[in-house]
Each structure stands twice: as structure tokens, then as C-alpha cells.
């Protein structure tokens, strides 16, 4: 059997200024091609965990423990080596597309620079590949979109551009931190569909953070539940949804059911979650 693509052992993250521990002693693995979802209430340490893997927490935030990506201990890499891994081997899809793109430059410039940094493609090759990837995430008029600035596009469009970029970069791991939270319901479904298609096409693994268990149910093979910086439960999605052991997980699952029933009722009986 192939080794895990990501192995996190005894990750501890703390705020140097206050001494507050943000993640206590977190260990988990992601198998190649599988999706591990981290769920939990706001402030439980999900984003800090993702940023620790990417080594992107703010400078006052310290971390210890061992993070291995494809067998390589990321903590030992120089910042330059880490930059080569980010994007090409690990792609991050963030909650707000706006924060992922430079607001002062058209989207196409960002896309071209990212691709040129990792591949030696010519300008015309980049345009052709970007056009085809953007069409496959159902973005209309891709060339027009490449000329737009981030503020001229909707949140759902920016998320799909990030997914298109991941399609072109073909990373081994995608870290998606609440990629659907800021979107309206229709865009949420479109983005989840595209993330599922992306996994199918490039076979990448995924670390998927969300507090929306409906979305998690569509994507996750395995789930970690975090609370106050600690992993309080873990297991396969199937087992966790039907047979949660921890009271907190049961609360999450039943809150999801109530929301889901309410949603079905207000939609006049149409169950979008099962589309
Ligand atoms: N730059 C920072 N400086 C100090 N504390 C921070 C910083 N970033 C996050 N924290 C703290 O770390 C804890 C975990 O935050 P984190 O953003 O990981 O939570 P989360 O589970 O992702 O929540 P959400 O679902 O709201 O995004 C919180 O108590 C937060 O206040």
C-alpha cells in the first residue's frame, strides 16, 4: 500500500505573545487520493491547522511537531523550498477568493505568473490551458474573465478560478479551508460539484475544512472533529454520521439534521442536498 501523502504528528500551535495554545496535540494522516474533512465550531483550530501544514501562520504563531508531505518533513525545508511545494504540490483554496488574488492586477496576470513559476510554459500555452481549465469549471467567457480584476467577479467565480488553477497545477494535495462558506446556496452546490470533479480528474487528496456537514457528507472519506484545539473524534464519514460516539459530534450531526429539515421545508419539499 502507498504511504500517506500527509502525516501530521503531535502538532502543537501556540500564540507566542499570549501563550494561548491554539492546537494541542494533533495527529492525523491523509491517504493518497482520499478526502479528510476537519469539522468543528468556530475557533476550534481548523484554519490554524491548515496554515500550519502550509507554514503560513502569522509570525507570532509558533508550531511544533512533525508534518510530513510525501515523506518529506516540511519543517526542515527552507522558505524557498516551501514556496516550490505551495501551489505545485499542495494547493490551497480559501474561504474568500478575494484574499487569494492580488486586488491590483487582473486575474490573468496572477494565473500566468503562478503557472510560469511552476512550469516552463509559453504565454500562448498558458492562455490555451487556462481557457480549457476555466471552461471545464463552467466559467463562461474565460478570456474575458482573465482580463477582469478580482473585485469585478463574484465569490463563486473566484472559487471556480482557484479550482481551475488547481486543475492546471495538478497538486497531490488540496487544502480547502471553508471554500463554500461565503457563497450563496446555488454557488455552494456548483463549487462542491467542481471540487468533486477535480478530485476525479486529477486524483488528488484533499484536506477539507468546513462546519457545514451537508457539504462534508458529499466529499469526505474520513472526518476529524475538533473542539477547542483538540481532536475529539475521528472516523470514516459513514460511521461518524450514523454512529457518533462523542456528545459534541452527535450535537453537530443533529444540528445538521434540523437545519436540513428546515431547508427542505422552506424549499417546498425540494431536497437540494440530494441533487
Ligand atoms: N493570528 C492569530 N493570532 C492569535 N490567535 C489566533 C490567530 N489566528 C487564529 N487565532 C486563534 O486560534 C484559534 C483557532 O482559530 P481558527 O481560525 O483556526 O479556528 P477555526 O476552527 O478555523 O474557526 P472558523 O470556523 O471560525 O474559521 C482561535 O481562538 C483564534 O482566535
Protein described:
The longest helix is centred in the last third of the chain and has 20 residues. The C terminus is likely disordered. This protein is an alpha/beta fold and 275 residues long. The protein has a 6-stranded mixed beta sheet with strand order 6-7-8-3-9-10, sandwiched between helices. It has a 4-stranded antiparallel beta sheet with strand order 2-1-4-5, covered by helices on one side. It is globular, with a radius of gyration of 19 Å. The protein is built from 11 helices and 10 strands. It has one domain: Rossmann fold (3-Layer(aba) Sandwich), CATH 3.40.50.300. Helices cover 43% and strands 23% of the residues. Adenosine-5'-triphosphate binds next to helix 1.
Order of helices and strands: EEEHEEHEHHHHHEHEHEEHH
Tell me the β content. 15-25%
Residue share in helix? 40-55%
Detail the poorly predicted runs. 271-275
Determine the number of helices (DSSP H or I, runs of at least 4 residues). Answer: 11
Mean pLDDT: 87
CATH-assigned fold name: Rossmann fold
CATH architecture: 3-Layer(aba) Sandwich
Kindly report the name of the CATH homologous superfamily: P-loop containing nucleotide triphosphate hydrolases
Q: Which word captures the global form?
A: globular
Q: C-alpha Rg, in Å?
A: 19 Å
Which ligands appear in the coordinates?
adenosine-5'-triphosphate
* Text of the CATH class: Alpha Beta
Widest sheet: strand order?
A: 6-7-8-3-9-10
- The secondary structure category is alpha/beta
Write down the domain tally: 1
In total, how many beta strands? 10
Determine the N-to-C terminus distance: 34 Å
> How is the main sheet built?
6 strands, mixed
